[in-house]
Amino acid sequence: MEELLNSLDKLVVEHNLESRAFKGAKEWSSSEDFDIDTSITSKFKYDFHAHKLCFRHEFRLTPYIETYLNITLDEVEVGYYCWVSDLNGEALDDMLVITDNELKYS
């Protein structure tokens, strides 16, 4: 088991998954397509939360890693960002989710 975990840690570092997730989150929140004004999203702070491996899924044929970042605004958690990549580091998907209803509907 330890060898598997070490291999996964190495993969995360080799493919810069954390830094790519931070970049993706900032790009998403500053996009014109995002429904929250950039005067607010520019104050978002992103903190690493977790890496999750999915090796079997009903819709995706290949294993993938999800890199999660917590999003805070004024020290209050308001959502999360998830960067999804295959085991070769290729981006498959991403999503930014605002969980704070007050912010979401402002």
Automatic annotation (TrEMBL):
It comes from the Bacteria. This is Uncharacterized protein. It comes from Microbulbifer echini.
